[in-house]
Every structure is written in C-alpha cells, then in structure tokens.
Amino acid sequence: MVFVLTNDDGIDAPGLAALHRAVQKAGLEAVVVAPQDHRSGCGHQVTTTQPIRVEQRDERAFAIAGTPADCVRLALSHLVPNVQWVLSGINSGGNLGADVYISGTVAAVREAALHRIPGIAFSHYRQGKREIDWDFASHLVQPLIQQLLAHAITPGGFWNVNLPHLQAGATKPDVVFCEPCTQPLPVAYRNEAEGFYYVGNYAERQRDPGGDVDVCFSGQISVTKLRL
Known about the structure:
Strand order of the largest sheet: 3-4-2-1-5-6-7-11-8
Structural class: alpha/beta
Distance between the termini: 24 Å
Largest sheet: 9 strands, mixed
Number of strands: 11
Strand content: 25-35%
Helix content: 25-40%
Shape: globular
Number of helices: 5
Mean pLDDT: 96
Order of helices and strands: EHEEEHEHEHEEEEHE
C-alpha cells in the first residue's frame, strides 16, 4: 500500500515530519509530495496558467512550487501513479467545521477523493501561542491511521481528524467520531485608515453540541467523515 504525504505548511514543517514518523512506525510505504513553501489557507486553489517547478529532495520526497491540491494532482498523474492513500498534515492549527472550505490541508485529500483515492487530513488545534508537542502528536496519529484504514469508506469520501491541544503530561484523549460543526467562523474586523483588519477570535467560535469543534475544544480527538 503506497501513501502520499502532503500538507499546506510546507515540506519542511514539523507537522509533516511528525506525520511521516507515524507512517513509518506503522510500517507503511510513503512518498512526500508537499509544497515548497507555506500555503496555509489557500483552500482548493490549483495552478493552471504557469509552470509548476518540482524539486526532488530524494527518491521519496518532492518539493512542489504549488498548492496542496497541485501536489496531489502531480503525485497521481506523474510522481506516484500507484498511490492508494493520501495523508495530509499534521497541520499547525485546527481545521474544524467551516475551516474545511479554507484549508489547504483538507483540500489535498478532497482532491484525492475527486480521483476516487481515499485520504485523511490531520490537524492539531493550537491554543494561543503555546507550542505543539509534535512527538506526542505523532504518537496519537499512528494508531489513528491504522484505525481509519480499517474503516470502510466509499469512493468520494475522506476523513478529517483534529487533535486537541492538551496540557503537558495529559493522558491520551478519546477518539470521537462526530459530525462537522455548521456554525460560521467569528466575523470581526478592526477598521483603520488602510482598511479592515480581521480580528476574529478562533477559540471563541460558536459550536454545534457534539460537533467536531465542540469535541476538539473539549480535549478529545474529533474524527469526521466528509464527502464530495
């Protein structure tokens, strides 16, 4: 089984390294095809009017001068044509509820789903300016990969996983399969001479009871099954 690993934080991001470690410990074969630079929040943008440069870092790693969706397109069509799963992340920051429409992390697995390739997007909610323990995140993700591989998913479907931001020394959180929250992101702006500056507080977003935002903010791992 061949896996493509990608993200939207860039090929050198610690979250991608954490995901790679989890995949390797699970004994799975992986090829990294990830953006050369930070592409967070680019959504499902694709490059169609200019060339996309590819830098081969080694025989199993490619840095792409494009978006996460570009990475998956190139992986499936040229770089890793025998790919069977696409894993994206681990994103530094949550991708919960409405975030999935903005997220490049999620767009990567959505692009795979369009080609009937299953995938999992992994994100880590970040509380304030606290650092993320990427080793702990990798430890949490490893069994989740194996668990979700065992779950049947129909063509056009994909998984979205969000890890909570726990205090140091916390016990392993529960995994909760839930629905995506349907509430909007906070809409707040500061008006200055140059224009409007977004000042919405992510942590104060509304929650559907039992939805993925509620689950993750409550200290558990949220898992949602999404469809095209």
